[in-house]
């Protein structure tokens, strides 16, 4: 049986409005009455209804976690980390899956139905116009690991993609690989372009020709097809893959072609998903600073909920190089 405000009021010997004020942030109630109400609520197992509170105060305490790719390991990890970060700040997360959504007005309406105080977007495949509609729906929005970065118009928390590309190139070239290739996509995603720009800045400074192979999506199969295309053109000896799933596909293609990794070809990924550490892959990769990014995103959103306005902020964190088994040892 559901415990109601009326039940708590009767047990504590107070009015319904006193119970409501006790569980409303900023509500005026004496310390003695608060103690009586909280004791009665604990005894009965009462939990405030955030949606009911939203109708009264305009604040629900809920934050929408908007995703569009539940199969993405980074999305799943970010979802868990963001939920924990919000919980630590007195907020509760509600999942909103907009996979396949292309209509801006419908997307904004779906988000509005949850009465959330704000939204965290962990959605790499939503069209730019849908993202813009969510940002203009009358509640604070922070993008986490976005694929469209417009720092002048949006609050964003993610990784320093250019720096990540440079780090991958420097580590690869230090191991003696001199015929580099970049595998990434989709081509329209800003972070992919930034990772390429960072990687290319280093290879260009060494006067090295760089092969670039774009993919239509981010998957193991897409990485495998990309590597096969590069191999059909003569191949490369160093592959920087802008996502670990692409890197796993490249490894499979190289194995099928009889190319020894890391002796004949090296591979570096980005993300450090769980599969990257499996014994059959042992992928050398760049680890995303998930904890730092999600903490920054959650803190920024809560700040915007409490005090709307101000200039948008961009928080970009460096990746960490994770040595496993797909690059040779550094040259002396």
TrEMBL record:
The keyword Transcription applies. Signal peptide: none annotated. The keyword Thylakoid does not apply. One of its GO terms (molecular function) is transcription cis-regulatory region binding. It comes from the Bacteria. Residues 3-57 form the HTH lacI-type domain. It holds the Pfam family LacI. Transmembrane segments: none annotated. SMART domains: HTH_LACI. Keywords: DNA-binding, Transcription, Transcription regulation. This is LacI family transcriptional regulator.
